Amino acid sequence: MIGERQFEKVDITRYEVKKLVLIPLILLLASFIILGYTQVSVGSPVRLGMDFIGGTMVKISTDKSADDLRAEFADLPLVLVAKTGIGNEKRLEFDISSESQEYHKLLDRLEMQYSDRYEIKTISAVFGKQYQRQALVALITAFLLMAIVVFVVFRIFVPSFAVVLSAFSDITIAIACMDIIGMKLSLGTVAALLMLIGYSVDSDILLTTNLLRKKGELFDNIRSAMKTGLMMTSTTIVAIFAMFIVSFLIDITILKDISIVLLFGLVMDLMNTWLLNAGILRWYIERKESKRKRYIKQKQGKGGKKRAKSS
């Protein structure tokens, strides 16, 4: 468990609500600006990989290094060289359609250099656009279903909205981080974003449940939820970071991309859960409690006036 001394350094109950929500909202706004800039620059909010724009992928079994392969295919539009994680197999991606002369040039070279030690696959631009639509539908559907479940479980608008906003911010900032480092959207990163929808709501639900349904002082409930939530998310981050280290060392691109996206989202989830969501929930509960006390005071005042008149 998190020690008391370490926890005191991150005790969010010491800060005003406005200060808690300000940083996450500024970062969310900055993410929108980054996504907008990328949209203007490349025509989509995130750079698209071969899975979504089409191209040619080649898998070859070779001991040659990535630099050697880049030099060998320097006269062709080579986009990516990566290990697949299966023996000494390498994956090469080219910005080439199957109808182009470059495609036939590539085929001839593969036949001459690698004979039966290669596998080639092309994705047309039409299929790439279909994958774009399917990926977008999958992300929107998953997010909407998550939002519906949250609203059904809590049945109160403000707390439910806070959970959904926090999850939305996690995903938006993660995509903006992808743009910053130049990472392209692939089927692997789409899978990571789908996983992030689930990862991003667990600590939010823990916090919301603790504050709405657990008896006791508000700040005590926040601290209790925070200790458990930080442990949950930190454990997941450590596991994902270990996956990143392994995939980086043996150069498995798809696992590396998935782990990077998840790390972006989970780190942002710490901020969005314990600053944005906790701040909104605290404002909601304190406002509700203030209204309740005001109502009781007014009721007591009316009762006192009635007793004075009767006497």
Please characterize this protein's 3D structure:
The protein is built from ten helices and four strands. With 311 residues, the chain is an alpha+beta fold. It folds into two domains: 4-47 and 127-292, Multidrug efflux transporter AcrB transmembrane fold (Up-down Bundle); 55-123, Alpha-Beta Plaits, CATH 3.30.70. The chain has a four-stranded antiparallel sheet. Helix 7 runs antiparallel to helix 10, helix 8 (187-213) runs antiparallel to helix 9 and helix 8 packs parallel to helix 10 (253-310). The termini are far apart.
Short description, anyone?
By secondary structure, the chain is α+β, with helices and mostly antiparallel strands. It has helices at 4-9, 17-42, 50-53, 66-72, 101-114, 125-154, 157-181, 187-213, 218-249, 253-310, and strands at 55-61, 78-83, 89-94, 118-123.
* Shape type: elongated
For the terminal residues, how far apart are their CA atoms? 61 Å
Percent helix, as a range, is: over 70%
- Strand arrangement, largest sheet? 2-3-1-4
Radius of gyration: 26 Å
CATH topology of the largest domain: Multidrug efflux transporter AcrB transmembrane fold
Count of separate structural domains: 2
- Relative strand content: 5-15%
Helix-strand pattern, N to C? HHHEHEEHEHHHHH
Number of helices: 10
The secondary structure category is alpha+beta
* CATH-assigned homologous superfamily of the largest domain: Multidrug efflux transporter AcrB transmembrane domain
Overall pLDDT: 87
CATH class of the largest domain: Mainly Alpha
